[in-house]
Amino acid sequence: MKNADVAKRRDEAISRGVGMQTQIYVDRALNSEVWDIEGNRYIDFAAGIAVVNTGHCHPKVMDAVAKQMAKFTHTCHQVLPYEHYIRLAERLNAAVPGDFPKKTVFVTTGAEAVENAIKVARIATGRSAIIAFGGAFHGRTFMGMTLTGKVEPYKKGFGAMMPDVFHVPFPQEVHGITTAEAMAGLTKLFKADIDPGRVAAIIFEPVQGEGGFYPAPKDLVKAIRALCDEHGIVMIADEVQTGFARTGTLFAMEQYGVAADITTMAKGLAGGLPLAALTGKASLMDAANPGGLGGTYGGNPIGIAAAHAVMDVIEEEKLCARANELGSRLKQKLESIRATTPEISDIRGPGFMVAVEFANPSNKEPDAGFTNRVKNEAQKRGLILLTCGVYGNVVRFLAPITIPDAHFAEAMDILEASVAAARQG
């Protein structure tokens, strides 16, 4: 088989609405390497969009999955429950930041976790309004894309969004948006559009993912916490992309000194198996009536088994420390490239959730064209990169945290060569 042949079949069989960043059709993968159906080998700096933080086919995860598959694959926890579902909830209740009793709900996708967090906030407060941020990404369901602060491609053409959702600016230092301006946006919202006493929740990403890997400043997060406390608003941290060691701590919110009331998670939770969760204050999580939360596949036993293995690997292999080490080395390489690359306008991100932003040196405007050239040149050389950002001018780096040093060094050489090639046009 050839990639081009499968790509043609794909175009004929799959909806155009399912976007594609590459036309590389994978045959197998191991840790940070993937091989396509033609036998070409790539270093994976996407990790399924921060899903396989523990690497492709980690032996402990694969062993846990195999053992669970030999027992049973599905019963629906609401019908025939199983103990390791409860045990994983206990682990997350202990691990998620916040010095208060917590409870957990398991679902299947990050969007579903966000949807259920909104449901919990609304039923617990008796309010309906939700505040989110510009540039945010919270999913493709109707509530998820309503919360998302980016029109193209997520909202365009889908008609009216869900009611009672409001957006305010998110701080972006490189674009001159400060925490003060973001908080002024909230003040203006409360003066002009909505009574804070009608707001159920404020939701934010500690580091915006699709929006461009902009970290939430500490003063913003603390100000949101104070505002929520003042008005009885539920604070929701969307850690779907930031969770499970990616930012150098198990959860990014550990770095802020305050805790969210509800935390959503997915992606890195189960090492490639579809599993998501929301963990929050027990008093909030118990507000819904039995049957109001859950889902047929929520907390699938195979995903639960994989998640236990992922959490063990993160602890045993000290992946939080590893993320900080790799992120530091990546930033050093990017800084050395910046010395000869005026197109680099910013390098940012905690742990191994790092991004580089490109702009035209002459007018400082975001340069999506240059960014795509870097991505394409890297792919030609065997390195998979992802772009993101409202302007499409950011490369985000999401390699498995378990990447061997030799593969990381190889990727850095490819990155340097790719940027140089992109500058030559």
TrEMBL record:
EC id: 2.6.1.19
Required cofactor(s): pyridoxal 5'-phosphate
Keywords: Aminotransferase, Pyridoxal phosphate, Transferase
Enzyme class: transferase
Gene Ontology biological process terms in this record: gamma-aminobutyric acid metabolic process
Transferase listed as a keyword: yes
Record InterPro entries: 4NH2But_aminotransferase_bac (IPR004632), Aminotrans_3 (IPR005814), Aminotrans_3_PPA_site (IPR049704), Class-III_PLP-dep_AT (IPR050103), PyrdxlP-dep_Trfase (IPR015424), PyrdxlP-dep_Trfase_major (IPR015421), PyrdxlP-dep_Trfase_small (IPR015422)
GO molecular function: 4-aminobutyrate:2-oxoglutarate transaminase activity; identical protein binding; pyridoxal phosphate binding
Family recorded in the similarity comment: Belongs to the class-III pyridoxal-phosphate-dependent aminotransferase family.
Protein name: 4-aminobutyrate--2-oxoglutarate transaminase
Gene source species: Tabrizicola oligotrophica
